[in-house]
Amino acid sequence: MDNTKATEMLYKGKTTKGMDFNKPEAFPLFCTTSFTMKSLEEVREAYASKYTYVRTNNPDREALAEIITYLEGGEKSLIFSSGMGAITSTLMTFVSSGDHILCNSSIYGETFDVLKKLLPRFGVESTLVDFTSEEAIREAILPNTKIVYTEVMANPTMALTDISMLAKIAHEAGAMLIVDNTFTSPMSIQPLSLGADIVINSLTKFINGHSDAIAGSITSTEVIANKVQPISMLCGTPGDPFAAWMTIRGVQTIDLRLERQMSNAAALAKALEDNPHVLKVNHPSLESFPQHELATRLFESNDRMAGIMSFVLPEDMGKINAFMKRLKFAHYATTLGGIRTTLNHPVTSSHAHMPDEDRRRMGITPGMFRLSVGIENVDDLIADFYQALEVFEE
User: Fold this and answer.
1) Burial letters for 52-67: b for 16+ Cβ neighbours within 10 Å, e otherwise?
2) Among 41, 58, 36, which Cα is nearest to 248's?
3) Which residue, of 251, 266, 287, is where some domain finishes?
4) Which terminus of the chain has a smaller tally of CB atoms within 10 A, N or C?
5) 259 shares a domain with 241
6) CA-to-CA distance for 347 and 353, rounded, in angstroms?
7) Are residues 39 and 180 in the same domain?
8) pLDDT category, 128, cuts 50, 70, 90?
9) Cβ distance 217 to 201 under 8 Å?
10) Is 0.85 topped by the overall pTM?
């Protein structure tokens, strides 16, 4: 998959409707809250086929939606103010009081909060189980299960989900399968082609890739997307033109960036696994990864699996702090997917709300770091980590 065809659409005027401009070299930012009309006939035409109020529709958001649709291999995409905006709007569209959601137990912390803190207030219950076990999934399906929800790759353990298997189970039960593709991106995998009904992306991460814009998306059939759109309008979650414009700029280099990030991640994962001070490395390219065989079925090659990993150090917080201070290229940040390598500590961030025993049951210890790999020279990255890990010898 590359983005050549997707970005080419920008310059042929195919990504906007009713706009009259002459093939700009860079796609324009439409920084306006509304579009004007001169007559009732023009008003009716605008509401039917053009642009009116920017929360309803705007050219930048629509152009980005068409690009994401192409990358994910769907029929239609919607662009949201954030990944969480995409998640909440979609869930609220398809569940009602008395419904049940079956979710992967290894799930993004704020998705967990939506399922366990927000939706129960409206009579929607959720069950979280280990999606690496087909038996556990089948046992947890209920007659009122309306949605099966998962990420391709879990944060921060990198545990994979067999999307084809999960789609079969969900559809046999009459449920919809929703897959969050944020950690992997459509450059690695297209969940719709494996049976998912809806794919969600936090465009903030790898798709934008520059850590400077927040947006989210869903991609599905036109019928499903059209059901979500009015709920998004009511919730106020459509994306704004500037973030869409920034993401359009970022997505034009996605194949170049992600190819480098994924190959860097595979090389760095192997190097860290070989370092005596690293207790464990989680990356699907490694033969030691428990689901390596599944990874080889889901992804094209070891160098195109993921630009993200996690690794575990001894639980000596003094030395962990010293290790972080000695890093020169990698730095701590609360996001991922950018062109610079970033670290995140799940115990003090994404999973801070969970009891320690629950975290450890998932394999998350105070010595674990999530690592989003950038586009730096991989030899420089390896050398940087090795010199920083020398603190464990002191």
Assistant:
1) bebbebbbbbbbbbbb
2) 58
3) 251
4) C
5) no
6) 9
7) yes
8) very high
9) yes
10) yes
Q: Are residues 26 and 107 in the same domain?
A: yes
CA 123 to centroid of chain Cα atoms: 27
Whole-angstrom distance, CA of residue 59 vs CA of residue 49: 12
Q: What is the DSSP letter of 160?
A: B
Q: Which H or E run includes 41? A: helix 40-49
Among candidate residues 245, 262, 219, the one with its CA nearest the CA of residue 75: 219
Amino acid at 233: M
- Both tokens of 257, joined, read 């960036």
Q: Are residues 300 and 201 in the same domain?
A: no
Whole-number Cα distances in Å, 38 to 33, 41, 42, 88, 196: 17, 8, 6, 37, 44
Lookup: tokens for 273: 């696994």
Residue 72: domain span: 4-251
> Are 212 and 328 in the same domain?
no
DSSP category for residue 236? T
Q: Could you say which of 251, 268, 295 is where a domain stops?
A: 251
Tokens of 214: 């927040």
Taking alpha carbons only, the member of 184, 241, 186 closest to residue 213 is 241
- CA torsion angle for 31, 32, 37, 38 (degrees, to 10)? -90
Segment (H or E) for 233: helix 222-235
**Judgement on whether residues 116 and 265 belong to the same structural domain of the protein:** no
Residue 13 scores a pLDDT above 50 = no
pLDDT tens digits for 268-292?
Answer: 999 999 999 999 999 999 999 999 9
Q: Which amino acid is at 175?
A: A
164 contacts: CB under 8 Å, gap ≥ 6: 194, 195
Question: CB-hemisphere CA count at 13 Å for 124?
Answer: 21
The answer to whether the bond into 284 is cis (omega within 30° of 0) is no
Helices (H) and strands (E) in the chain, counts: 14, 12
pLDDT at 376: 98
Q: 16 and 39 share a domain? A: yes
pLDDT, tens digit (0-9, with 9 covering 90-100), for 72-123: 999 999 999 999 999 999 999 999 999 999 999 988 888 999 999 999 999 9
Query: Total structural domains in the chain?
Result: 2
The beta-strand segments (E) located in the chain are 76-80, 100-104, 125-129, 145-151, 176-180, 198-202, 216-220, 280-282, 308-312, 331-332, 342-344, 368-372
